[in-house]
Specification:
0% strand; globular
Length: 411
């Protein structure tokens, strides 16, 4: 079996696990905690995710891309890892300082002080996770085995300890704790390949790429994470619960296609670096065929059976999530197209400026639509905003992809 087939096999197992475990825990948690507590957790987590973005910036892309290029050269691998880890240390420190200041100055965050401190733990653990390193090495077997073991432990813990509505803090602690356990295992395992060393002699292009793609991630959050945060500030925890329940279901489903994207990104970077354009085009066409076969029937199924899906996954009291789910269902196809165009193509090509322009357009549409629509339509408005933003991103990505495709076709 070829390496790429092995990676897709392990990524498929990982994605299936990521699909099954939330389906095991979320129906239970949504019923035990109730829609308001689900909304509180989602609001706090959306704020913490902003700081995760600031902490990681573009590391999840640049790290995978650069490690993939030098994975067979041990000396270069050590040098590249140290430089990238040092940059990530700086950005995480800045994010942590700003987060601590915000926790003590923003009234809405002070209302959820205990949850915010758990968010601090999540921020630090996510920095130490160094998942970008293992994905760059294409060590999907290790990532799969570790993730399944830790998630299994998480599922057991949720069922054992989360028993009533008042356990919302414990639930969020377990959610952050799973990242910390993964990070601890990763740090021990990483010592087989590299040693940890901070340096200030990092390459200028690394810092530039991390910065540009970091801005991309921040702008992207303006039509994803920002939706939840803005909804939480201007509306109720219940409305946040409706919206995040619909997006949770969508995310679980989209994970299945993301398995292919996660495997192909480092592979695409290696193929393009070696100028194997025929192989690149073959993989792009295969991704498109998989997406069409998966997404279109899934979208139709969700549109037809949204009430039943919500009732099964979340239970009674979540009827307000049905319409948002129907609105965002087409995003399974739209975001899948974006993953092919951006994650599998423009990013491995190093077209960071094109990626940045995509995110700027999406952010502008997202912010404007949030301010205009959400105060009137609340959770339904947030769903509409996300759909409009992603359509904008997709159209822009198609434009830039066609330019690069025509260049490759001449080779």
């Amino acid at each position: 079996m070829s390496q790429i087939k092995r990676n897709i096999f392990y990524s498929g197992i990982l994605t299936t696990a990521n699909y099954i475990f939330p389906l095991l825990t979320y129906p239970y948690v949504s019923r035990v905690l109730g829609v308001a507590n689900i909304g509180v957790c989602s609001f706090v987590d959306s704020i913490i995710n902003y700081f995760l973005i600031l902490s990681m910036l573009g590391m999840n892309v640049v790290g995978i891309r650069e490690i993939a290029k030098c994975k067979d050269d041990k000396t270069k691998l050590q040098q590249t890892f140290s430089q990238l880890f040092s940059i990530n240390t700086i950005t995480t420190t800045v994010a942590l300082i700003i987060l601590l200041i915000a926790m003590h100055t923003v009234p809405k965050l002070q209302e959820n002080y205990h949850l915010m401190w758990i968010g601090v733990l999540k921020l630090v653990a996510n920095f130490l996770l160094i998942e970008w390193f293992f994905k760059g090495l294409e060590d999907f077997k290790y990532v799969t085995n570790r993730t399944i073991a830790v998630r299994f432990l998480y599922v057991i813990s949720v069922f054992l300890f989360v028993k009533e509505e008042q356990d919302v803090v414990l639930y969020y602690l377990l959610t952050a704790g799973i990242i910390l356990v993964n990070a601890t295992v990763n740090l021990l395992y990483a010592k087989r390949h590299v040693y940890f060393q901070l340096t200030l002699s990092f390459l200028k292009e690394y810092f530039k790429s991390v910065g540009v793609l970091g801005i991309y991630a921040i702008l992207t959050s303006m039509y994803t994470t920002f939706n939840v945060a803005y909804l939480g500030f201007i509306s109720s925890d219940v409305e946040v619960g409706y919206y995040t329940t619909s997006t949770k279901i969508h995310t679980i489903i989209l994970m299945m296609f993301s398995a292919v994207t996660g495997v192909l990104m480092p592979r695409m970077a290696s193929i393009l670096a070696e100028k194997k354009y025929d192989e690149y085009k073959r993989l792009i066409r295969k991704s498109a065929a998989i997406l069409i076969a998966f997404a279109i029937p899934t979208v139709i199924f969700i549109e037809l059976f949204a009430p039943i899906i919500i009732r099964i996954i979340a239970g009674d009291g979540y009827e307000g999530a049905i319409l948002p789910l129907r609105i965002i269902a087409p995003l399974i196809l739209i975001i899948g197209i974006e993953q092919i165009l951006i994650t599998q193509s423009l990013m491995p090509m190093g077209k960071d400026n094109a990626v940045l322009i995509n995110s700027i357009l999406g952010a502008v549409v997202g912010i404007a639509a949030n301010l205009i629509i959400v105060p009137h339509l609340v959770s339904v408005g947030s769903a509409i905003v996300w759909l409009l933003s992603e359509i904008t991103i997709m159209c822009s990505a198609i434009y830039f992809f066609r330019q690069e495709w025509s260049k490759i076709s001449l080779n």
